[in-house]
Amino acid sequence: MLNDMRYRIKFQEKKEGGRLPVEGDYETVVECWAKAEGLKGREYYAAAAVQKEHTVEFTIRHREDIDKHMRILFQNQSYEIESILPNYSRKNFTTIKAKAVE
């Protein structure tokens, strides 16, 4: 599994601003190696039916400091986290499904 983790991704949080929240200002909180896969087979067709075909599945080493309110920066593209799932076959890894933000 570690050999497949060849992409560097960044987890970003919205910056705390002054009184008004500033849209689009994010800061990198965590940077790690990940395996990135597009959906395939039945998952792809189910996602395409609801216009989520730009969904990517990231697999990373398990971390406690990641939540759904963050976004992922991967190859200069932002992704909104949809779900964070434990990988039951390999307990030290976490699977994250994320949708491309346009």
| Straight-line distance between termini | 30 Å
Main sheet overview: 6 strands, antiparallel, barrel
CATH fold call: Thrombin, subunit H
Given as residue ranges, the uncertain stretches (5+ residues, pLDDT < 50) are: none
Please identify the top-level CATH class. Mainly Beta
Query: What CATH architecture do you see?
Result: Beta Barrel
Question: Average pLDDT, to the nearest integer?
Answer: 82
What is the number of helices?
1
Helix content: under 10%
- Side-by-side strand order of the widest sheet: 1-2-3-6-5-4
Give the overall shape, derived from the CA principal axes.
globular
Count of folded domains: 1
Describe this structure in words.
The protein has 102 residues and is mainly beta. The protein has one domain (2-100): Bacteriophage SPP1 head-tail adaptor protein (Thrombin, subunit H, Beta Barrel). It has one helix and six strands; from the N terminus they run ββαββββ. It has one helix at 42-49; strands at 7-14, 26-38, 55-61, 71-74, 77-86, 93-100. A six-stranded antiparallel beta barrel has the order 1-2-3-6-5-4. The longest helix is centred in the middle third of the chain and has 8 residues, at 42-49. The protein is globular and about 45 Å long.
Throw out a few tags for this protein:
mainly beta, Thrombin, subunit H, SSP1_head-tail_sf, 102 residues, Phage head closure protein, Phage_SPP1_head-tail_adaptor, six-stranded antiparallel barrel
Short description:
This is Phage head closure protein. With 102 residues, this protein is mostly beta strands.
List the helices and strands and how they pair.
Elements: E1 7-14, E2 26-38, H1 42-49, E3 55-61, E4 71-74, E5 77-86, E6 93-100
Antiparallel strand pairs: 1-2, 1-4, 2-3, 3-6, 4-5, 5-6
